[in-house]
Amino acid sequence: MQHHVEIYDFYAIRMTQARLLKNLSILPNRLECLLSRPPQLGILQEHVYANSSSAVRTSATLMQNQHSFLVTNKHLFVNAKRMAGHNKWSNIKHIKASKDQAKSILHNKFVRLIRMAVKDGGNQTDPKINGKLAHVLIQAKENSVSKSCIESALKGAVVSKDNLAPYTFEIKGPGKCFLVVETLTDNYTKTKQLVKSCLKKTSSVYAEGISKSAFTHKGVIIVEDNGSLSLDKAVDVAIQAGAEDVTQITTDDGENAFQFFSDPGQFWNVRTNLQELNYVIQSSSVQYVPTVKQPLTDDDISIAEKLYDLLERLPEVVNIYDNIE
Question: Given phi > 0 = left and psi -120 to 50 = alpha, else beta, which region is 77?
Answer without folding.
Answer: beta
